[in-house]
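Batch manifest, entry 17 of 40.
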Amino acid sequence: MKKLLVANRGEIARRVFRSARELGIATVAVYSEADAKAAHVVEADEAIAIGPAAARESYLDMAKVLDAARRSGADAVHPGYGFLSENADFAESVGAAGLTWVGPSPASIRAMGDKQRARALAEAAGVPIVPGSARIAPGDTDGVEAAGATVGYPLLVKAAAGGGGIGMRRVDDPAKLLETVAATQSMAGKAFGDGSVFLERFVPKARHIEIQVFGFGEAGAVHLHERDCSLQRRFQKVIEESPAPGLPEPVRARMAEAAVALCRHTAYCGAGTVEFIVDAVSFEFFFLEMNTRIQVEHPVTEMVTGMDLVAMQLRFASGEMHNLQQSAIRSTGHAVECRLYAENPQKHFMPSPGTLAVFTMPDEAAGLRIDGGYRQGDVVTPFYDPMIAKVIAHGATRDEARAKAAKALRQIEIEGLASNRSFLIACLEDDRFARGDVYTGFIDEHRAGLVASAAEETCP
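Output type: structure tokens
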């Protein structure tokens, strides 16, 4: 691998470039009209324009991205996360063009991208799955109410082709099931081109814990320990950490074993994440989904293991890495990642696009890492995800990591748009979060108090 095109933008493009440079690989950026002066464009060895601001006309246009790879002479493509990262057709097209695809096989992407097929594979591998229904095709209402009664309430209506919290609606009242199914089918059809849905049991007090894995096909797989991603709003992660606080060691071990078993069963290749829903009371766990890409929160794993996941992806794709011993992977200390967004917590977390008139971040130091996509003067546009940066802190203990993250957040200066900086501090310093009492409904349940604390933090 001599020249790598990253089919993405912002923070993750810069992140991949960093590992590529360390491996002596030249880098190629692609950019839309809105990103012409973006940091990832400036930092790449070469940059190629691929279209208008709208993602569907640029970053999601497979033909334009592949043409950029051809024009640049790149011999490999890394998709990052989001956009085309879990598009099996794109992965196939990259291979058909004679380029190296830095990711799992198209077959793995298809298998895990279909949530029902993924459930079946997990079950076949001996991994516990959440009680759920068969696939419900668009417009099909036969047996839906009976299926809801069998699954039990509360339940989730989920897009079969969805992921990342998109295409997911909760139903508590059986009388609302049919209309929710219809609404979710409509939205799924527009978002994923497939309006099929299924029903899945909703665990009222749940934790969202995921296992980072790396597969070597028939040669086996390893795990790089777990991340707790329970602090969420609208099914979107806000703060992630590793190790998961208060998780019994036998449960931690069984989850890791289950994740590796799924990789081995499917001869999975490359980096991936197996996600679980864990009952916060009984610690019973169930397979949720598998993401066949690098995750937004991968720095948490890198901080506790000291391993470079992106470099591992690049080396594996280059044929330079054939296996890894589980005994060589250790977790040390505790890491916390906070997602800094251009959004307004005081206004229901609405996105807050605008110009970063003032934007200063703390310098990276021992135990502190900043992964960002913007600089002072840059514009956070309404066209893409409004994440500005990630603040990742590592300490010997969870309390040390929390304190370090909060201190770093306080050092951030932002003017020109609203951000969730103070809200993140409020979460980190909340007594309940500090005790490790985290679950997916935490923010919804305590939102008023957290937002009020964030407002006080904002005031001088």
